[in-house]
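This section describes the prediction task in plain terms. A model, or a person checking by hand, is given the sequence of a single protein chain and must write out its three-dimensional structure as a string of tokens. No templates, partner chains or ligands are provided. The sample shown here is typical of the held-out split.
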Amino acid sequence: MKKKRIATLAIVVAIILSLGGATVYGYSQAEQYKRDLQYGYTRSLNDLRDCVDNIQLTLNKAVYANTATEQNGLAAKLMRESSMAKAALSTLPLTDASVDNVSKFISQIGDFSMSLSKKISEGQPISKQEFQSMENLESYSKKLQSDLQNVNPDFSASNFNDSLKNTEQDFTNFPSMIYDGPFSDHIGQKKPKMTEGKKTIPQGNAQSIAAEFSGLSQTQLTHTQDTSGSLPTYNFASKDGSVQISVTKAGGYIINMANTRTVSKSKLDHRAAFKKARAFLEKHGIQNMKESYYMISDGICVVNYASLQDGILCYPDLIKVGVALDSGDIVRFQAEGYLMNHTGRKLSASLSAADAQKKVSPNLTVQKSRLAVIPTPGLNEVLCWEFQCQGKNGDRVLVYMNAKTGYEEEILILQSTDNGILVR
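The expected answer:
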């Protein structure tokens, strides 16, 4: 009898443990599903924010576009970004009409862009009324940017819908539309010009070059795993791991160097950093370089340099030099763009600056002009007249006109902050 009770108790305990385990497993699975759902919603919200950012920037540029080629390109980008924004919006957990007006606004951008593209393709100019519509769209895009940044990423139905109410209210009175676009993104896809035809150097020679460049002795550097690809390199690191440096196997050029030491309180400003960076380049035989843009972060001023050929700025020949603002030491060096693109070029402009300037939007006031080489999406280069302009609301705008055809190749918005000057 006693044995029977023990056996029964064991069965009951086993059942309880089994049920408990199933409950724990079910709870774990539910939590995993909830995390996956939360991740998906967070990604959709971030995608929506990115699309709206791109819409606002493209509309900002479109106001200043003045040739059919550039206008059509910007219209196509607006259509693409509005389509992606709609897709991101459709996947968010909305239980009522909390974003109907926002959805309508995004749809109108797509419809307006399609209408413009059709009109431009037919050879018709954009009207003053349509330019005004672009400005209105950009104004509302800025509102949407701000509102989306304040949306609470708590995706429970009530909390998320409540956080969107202000966004929806901002677009309640959106007017109906009347329908009647840094130079280094593509570097890694090309064959390097600087190392073409150069012999492979021994690893020991590369270590000597790395030591001289970084200011360390050869014995302070350790050879680490090499890198293959379009620019094969020997890679080295200091014994404590704080310094990493790469040397191309062909020709023995420094491609990257980083000193990850902690940077203390800044004592230098960006002007002093420019002098330190330029002196460093000249010390290592890199001549005819000009500062373009810079950014300060974590006590390091990273300066972008482009090469000069006969006074013409060649943006694809990019070198970035990072200066520690506590001491003036060079703690960053990136020369991939320079090694990929630098070469002697045959550069001649068919159009004068005056003729090219006639193609610049009347909404812009040209302040300076110069010749510059810029990269194209097709992995090529084009010689342009670079016009530094003043736009509405204080916008600082760079317009690049093809120096042979007069077509607009690119429009960039200069952004100045306390931490640097960048372009978008």
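For orientation: The chain has ten helices and 13 strands.
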